[in-house]
Amino acid sequence: MSQLKTLLKNLGPGLLFASMAIGTSHLVLSTKAGAQYGWVMAIPIILANILKYPFFEFGIRYTNVTDKSLIQGYLNLGRKYLWIYAGVTVVSTFTILAALYIVTAGLLMNLFGISGVGEGIVALCLFVFIGTILIIGKYQFLENSLKAVISILFVALLITTVMVINKGVVPGSESYQRPEIFNEIGILFLISLVGWMPTAVEASGWVSLWSMENQKTMKEKPSLKEALYEFNVGYIMTALLAVFFLVIGWMTLYGTGTELSGNAVIFADQVVSLFTTHIGNWAYFLIAVAAFATMFSTCMTAHDAVSRVSLDVLQKLFPEKMVFSSQHSFAITVVLMALINWIVIVGFGAHMGSLVALATFVSFVMAPLIGWMNLKTVMGEDVPSALRPKKGLQFLTYLGMLFLALFALYYFWMVIS
């Protein structure tokens, strides 16, 4: 009971991580993985969650021990490392929010039967609504609101998954052949899945900044053990939900030959319809709300994170040019991120898939380097030796870097051969 009280008191970065991660990688990619390739895709999903764990854990560890963000840690390593992280952040800035908001707009249009209005307008309304919440409510409101959203989401998806398993696998077509996994198309899909499962490695910097904000709201700073326990609960929840979505896609679509659309509105309709067709129309509202809550909470946390990390990077690269107060700077950055990504939606909507593929590819290729930077930072002199990662976690980090590096090299070999 005391452990539960401590967990509830310290809820924050792990909760936000779960909310942010349970988005495109889960709702879209995990569902699609199960639908196209079946249960076998559980292997890369579980491997990605295990092998990328240290990269994110170090964000919590470093901030809790030093009271500094990972971004400051990169700067301590050398200005060039901060520039590398800044480069990856720029690619995310111009793509990730646009992709998340357009899918969320599609789900919203499906849920409320909105027609006669373009996806861009609905996305703009979401940008304004979420941006206002982040500016007025700040971190404290974000954290408190997500406690309810994530709880409802987890329960709704658990119920849905149990119902799907209970009903059994949908009969597939006898002529259906599973697509090749190790050809160029399959590898590209694996890169998207692994690259954003549970999320991009650069999000370790986001977790670090959330940890700093969480400490400001608490009367007493949590110990390293308490902070890691809270994050681990969020991380395990994230991994479980990825498997839930995989199972739902596998048991309701695999073998039927149904193609999941790249269009946000059509995809939203397919996701909700495939659940209700298999379970029953009575479950429509439960599933539609769960799907929308998934993407809405992801939009909110990702918008907050991208704004915070962009601002922190700029403040450390160009401290003499940051003339606004931190409060005003955050509000301006939130608005700027919304404006940039809405322009991307309007101007590059037809090429959204290519933009997301670029962002995923950059995240995937840079992941081993960022993982190494995180390890180097958390093993630095400002972290006491007793609080540094143990040998086992260090080994897992190197294994994760090797896994991602070999994957990237294999892709390059396929492209040039």
Shape: globular
CATH topology: Hydantoin permease
- What is the name of the CATH class? Mainly Alpha
Report on the biggest sheet.
Answer: none
CATH architecture: Orthogonal Bundle
- Level of helix content? over 70%
- Total DSSP helices: 17
* Strand element count: 0
Q: How many structural domains in the coordinates? A: 1
Radius of gyration based on Cα positions: 21 Å
**What is the N-to-C succession of helices and strands?**
HHHHHHHHHHHHHHHHH
Low-confidence residue ranges: 1-10
On the 0 to 100 scale, the average pLDDT is 82
How far is it from the N-terminal to the C-terminal residue, by CA?
A: 58 Å
Protein name: Mn2+ and Fe2+ transporters of the NRAMP family
Pfam families: Nramp (PF01566)
Transmembrane segments: 40-60, 81-103, 109-136, 148-165, 185-210, 231-253, 330-349, 355-375, 395-416
Membrane topology: Multi-pass membrane protein
Task: Please characterize this protein's 3D structure.
The chain has 417 residues and is mainly α. The protein has a single domain, classed as Hydantoin permease (Orthogonal Bundle). 78% of the residues lie in helices and 0% in strands. It is built from 17 helices and no strands. Helix 1 crosses helix 12, helix 8 packs antiparallel against helix 14 and helix 13 packs antiparallel against helix 14. The longest helix is centred in the middle third of the chain and has 49 residues. It is globular. The termini are far apart. The N terminus is likely disordered.
